[in-house]
Amino acid sequence: MVEFYAPWCPACQNLQPEWEKFAEWGEDLEVNIAKVDVTEQPGLSGRFIITALPTIYHCKDGEFRRYQGARTKTDFINFISDQEWKSIEPVSSWFGPSSFLMSSMSALFQLSMWIRHCHGYLTESVGIPVWGSYAIFALATLFSGLILGLIMVFLADCLCPSKRHRQQQYPYSKKLAPESAQLLKKLDEEQEADEEDLSDDETEDKKVSNRNSSMNAMIWSSSGWFCFLSCEEQ
């Protein structure tokens, strides 16, 4: 049986005499009786998710059950001797003190207590104003978030690289390679033939235009000569 308490809690102070009397029966009942100060053990209180004080747990064979009965010495003794704890459903393994989720919660509780101690040290011992302490923690939070974000992006890029860096693999590329090469060769030959035809047509057009121009020149020259002779005869 474990009791979670805090020295400043009035309900915990009222329970202490009954709990100490119950602890005297520990050897006779063959049960270990202990108590945990949540102000001194924030990690342990985080594992059990202590949200109210005092809180009592029964622990046996790796199973944890929360005691919710009357808080007197007689009720505690009957709870153990009559095995009333068997009627209480144990805490799920997901929320057990040894689970990953509760371990993370314990680390969070410890971090909160560490921040509280640092805040007290900065404001009381160093003499920094309260707003200054808040500003320091805000900057530290932003900096740590930036570092963690960069680390997560780096790991994500290493584990799951983007698709543009991956070469696409086509299962039928080897079979289609010769056929595509032949097709490209045919297209090149056809293009060259078309270019040759165009060049031939252009040369023929030039020859025809040259002939026409020469004929026109001859016609104009002959007409001019005829006009000149007619003028002389007159």
From TrEMBL:
The keyword Electron transport applies. The chain crosses the membrane at residues 135-156. Residues 189-203 have a biased composition (Acidic residues). Residues 188-210 are annotated as: Disordered. One of its GO terms (biological process) is negative regulation of platelet aggregation. Keywords: Disulfide bond, Electron transport, Endoplasmic reticulum, Isomerase, Lipoprotein, Membrane, Mitochondrion, Palmitate, Phosphoprotein, Redox-active center, Secreted, Signal, Transmembrane, Transmembrane helix, Transport. One of its GO terms (cellular component) is mitochondrial membrane. Its main location: endoplasmic reticulum. Pfam families: Thioredoxin (PF00085). One of its GO terms (molecular function) is protein disulfide isomerase activity. It is a single-pass type I membrane protein. It is found in: Endoplasmic reticulum membrane; Mitochondrion membrane; Secreted. SUPFAM superfamilies: Thioredoxin-like (SSF52833). InterPro entries: Thioredoxin-like_sf (IPR036249), Thioredoxin_CS (IPR017937), Thioredoxin_domain (IPR013766), TMX_domain-containing (IPR052454). Interacts with ATP2A2. This is Thioredoxin-related transmembrane protein 1. It comes from Apteryx owenii. The lineage of its organism: Eukaryota, Metazoa, Chordata, Craniata, Vertebrata.
